[in-house]
Amino acid sequence: MTIRILIILAFWGAYYLKANTIDLPNYVVATERSYYDYSRDIPIRSWALNIEDGSLPSTLDQIVSENLAFSFFRRQNAEFANPTTQAANLRFLSATAASRALITKDGIPQNDPFGGWINWARYNDLALSRLHLQNSATGASWGNQSAGGVIHLHSTDIPSTAEGRLRIRGDSEGGYGASIVQNIPYQEGGLQIALKAYDTDGAYVVHPDDRGPIDQETAIDYASIGLKNEILINESLRFSTYLDYFEESRNNGTPLANNSTEALDIGLRLHSEDTTLSWTAILYYQQRTFENQFTSVNTTRTGENPVLNQYDIPGEGIGGSLVFNHENGSKWNYTFGTDFRSLSGETNEDFSFGLDDRRQAGGDQWLAGVFGSTAWQITDNQSVTFQTRLDYWSIRNGNRTETALTTNTITRNETYTDRDGIEPTVSAKYLWDVDPQNQIRLSVGHTFRLPNINELYRPFRVRIDITEANPELEPEKYTFIELGWNGSPNDSIQIDSSVYHYWISDAVANVFQFSGPGPSPGGFVPNGGSFNRKENIDESTVLGWQTLLEWKLSDAVALNFQYLYTQSKFEESTIQPQLDGKRFPQVPEHKLSAALRWQLDNLQINAEGIHVRSQFDDPLNNRILDDYIRLDFDLSYTLNERMSASAGVNNATDEIILTGRASNGIRSIAQPRTYWVSLSTRW
């Protein structure tokens, strides 16, 4: 189904459903929500989405990135970033592009079963009510992939009357698209249909001074369909089913460099709400297909040749959970449960100059855990929360086969030994309400992350730099401590500040092996290029300080200031001693932002600026990425009760923001100045 056909169907379907639905009372009543909802845990911990606000970004990652601790591996957003770099990282715990945070939607994990990344463009914000961020201490019961925390997406309730929402958006990069949601209540239940589509010419990803005739804009188009059905079995028992489909195609900046994604998700959720003991049972299935072609561009950037064609990368995940929660307003509440996740995937690819060799590599993973948490109100102003979890993991059926296509000869045939282990996760959090205006918190914990199938078996290439997978990677292990304070010096100022320290054992990094030219297990390394391999680093640390100041100047004007300091470095590496003392790649020491919100009757004006200091593109800290300042402006006007319009500009000064620097000096850049407009309506 093409993007344009999907948009036409969305408009037609909305009109048809509006004319053929019956309003039925007493099902689920939607609540009013504001755009922001600050909690007293960590800065900007949760967002309540106003689905009539046309100034919301087109992809959810741009909302979460308002928390400076959230980032992709590179300085890019989901509209322009390669899918494999769209991992969710919190507090810069990552030395690679793999996700160190877990994403869930209504309790169902969303991370890709093969690579752990997130297709952020697929989510329709009109069908979501809330984004909620848990830090490490409160997200420990989720276990694997939650080292930095957990980001929860909550879908909207289906209201008691039939209603629909539509948003149309266009931008100066040739982008246009629409999001639409139709809610259809029926007796004892309701159906929600959500569609989203976008098509853009994209932007150049190579620095203007480094471009050649071969470079072009990164055209992107994507579409998603989401179905949610809820049945109220009785007053306390609700059964929900989910079906989501997403397809995307991208150009990576040259004619032959392309990738595409297909994703299918099916979920079942049974929830029982009782006065004291509630429970939720979930089953889900994920299917992914990914294709990606890497090319070698000549030194004059006048031509290219395919050198790695990953023509079929399937991934599959099956999982489920059963969670019980006891809460009756007493001094002692608790949660306990179990979950499992079975993952499989492989890469099928042709490689070498001329694509004369074929590789198949992949395997399976299994994770199962039991967990429990308890909250104890010690006194009226002091409480403590304990979380513990025990996971069994296994890596199975790992294999790698390579064949010379010209002679049909097997040149490599490896089967890797199955292995397994048990990993504990534990955390404790203490809260002290010193007075109504001040709260102190202290958290400690330990958790882990299992290397994903992508890291174990799939090599990749960034321009002339090749990185080999490693089937022998061990789990990363994290031990952390955090001290925080939340206070209100007066009624108009809110401050939240926290200091945290992580000790990481066996952190996965892309470790330099040698410079080209020359052959390597991942293909021929060209002159000026490098060959790297994923390896475990013995010891690493991350020290951070994050502060938020929210200042309400009046009922109409509010200011927001944030600062994040991060010192992340490799402490000890027996494999590559040159890493000792080096900073993590793609991690700046300083990030600072300031935002203004000004409400004038029906007009809202927003302005935001962010300053990010320089960072390195490689673990050996040889390739520096300059610091930058980005300014964004937008305004929204409510035309009437059912319609609003918005317009804005991102990167208003057209700052050149470096996202990467290859070994031969070719620089990649982020989104240029982009103007956009949107129109939102409901019925």
Tell me the count of domains: 1
Helix/strand class? mainly beta
Roughly what is the average pLDDT, rounded to an integer?
88
CATH superfamily: TonB-dependent receptor, beta-barrel domain
What's the CATH first level? Mainly Beta
Are there runs of 5+ residues with pLDDT below 50, and where? Answer: 1-46
CATH architecture: Beta Barrel
Shape: globular
Please tally the helical runs, counting DSSP H or I stretches of 4 or more residues: 3
Describe the structure.
This protein is mainly β. It has one domain: Maltoporin, Chain A (Beta Barrel), CATH 2.40.170.20. Helix content is 4%, strand content 58%. The protein has 3 helices and 36 strands. The chain has a 22-stranded antiparallel barrel. It has a 5-stranded mixed β-sheet with strand order 1-6-7-4-5, with no helix packed on it. β24 and β25 form a beta hairpin. It is globular and about 70 Å long.
